Amino acid sequence: MLDFLTSPLRRLGHATINAVWRLGFAARFLAAILLNSGQSLLRLQMTIREIYFAGVMSLIIIVVSGLFVGMVLGLQGYTTLAKFGSADALGAMVALALLRELGPVLAALLFASRAGSAMTAEIGLMKTTEQLDAMSVMAVNPMARVIAPRFWAGVVSMPILAALFNVVGIFGGYLVGVVMIGLDAGTFWSQMQGNVDLHYDVVNGIIKSLVFGIAVTLIAVFEGYDATPTAAGVSAATTRTVVTSALVILALDFVLTAFMF
């Protein structure tokens, strides 16, 4: 009877200790990345190559998703605003929804699903095939050669992708509101210009996307570096990257929104 009661508590305690240990290891891991970033920043070719992999290769999913999200916002916004007789404010509604919330959050989720999972799988595979150990034997620092360039590539790419998501999303709202429904184009753009504030809406959205980029990329490279060097371990690490990134993005979005707006 005693074993039946203590076994769940033992598992809970083990899981809690493991979670705290991993959190501390992730903090040390981030410090190690920052300390070893000088070499990757001096050799810009490595970082630019990773920016292409993380940013440019994610453009298709970002642009297509942004377009359809903007079109959905246009349709939903028009039907909602029309009930209150204020359909002319559609442009402002679409822009504010994208700039404040949907743009940074959805772009970060898509970035984690595409680029973050790929980073984890790539680093995990390098660990499984002992490429990271081989670099250490040859006096090449894996943190400076492999981890840091990918980290900074994600940090740089995420705000740019979020901005593109917002631009394409606003264009999607314009297609629905002006081209399909027939709202006045001048009213659409003037309402947007009059209600969107540069600092309050645009800058805060950029800050959100930057924070999301740091969090998602750190999770991706950490999970890859900490993956068990087996096929199942790399698969589990990739899954943890997507799931953990989604939860962290939503939690950070709540915290940042509470402080910003």
UniProtKB/TrEMBL annotation:
Q: Which Pfam families match?
A: MlaE
- Main location, first listed in the record: membrane
- Membership in a protein family: Belongs to the MlaE permease family.
Q: What parts of the sequence cross the membrane?
A: 51-78, 90-111, 158-181, 202-222, 242-260
Whom does it interact with, and what assembly results? The complex is composed of two ATP-binding proteins (MlaF), two transmembrane proteins (MlaE), two cytoplasmic solute-binding proteins (MlaB) and six periplasmic solute-binding proteins (MlaD).
Ordered alphabetically, the record's keywords are: Cell inner membrane, Cell membrane, Membrane, Transmembrane, Transmembrane helix, Transport
Task: Tell me which species this is from.
Answer: Chromobacterium vaccinii
Q: Which InterPro entries match?
A: ABC_MlaE_roteobac, MlaE_Permease, Permease_MalE
Role: Part of the ABC transporter complex MlaFEDB, which is involved in a phospholipid transport pathway that maintains lipid asymmetry in the outer membrane by retrograde trafficking of phospholipids from the outer membrane to the inner membrane. Probably responsible for the translocation of the substrate across the membrane.
| Name of this protein | Intermembrane phospholipid transport system permease protein MlaE
Q: Which domain of life is it from?
A: Bacteria
Presence of the UniProt keyword Chloroplast in the record: no
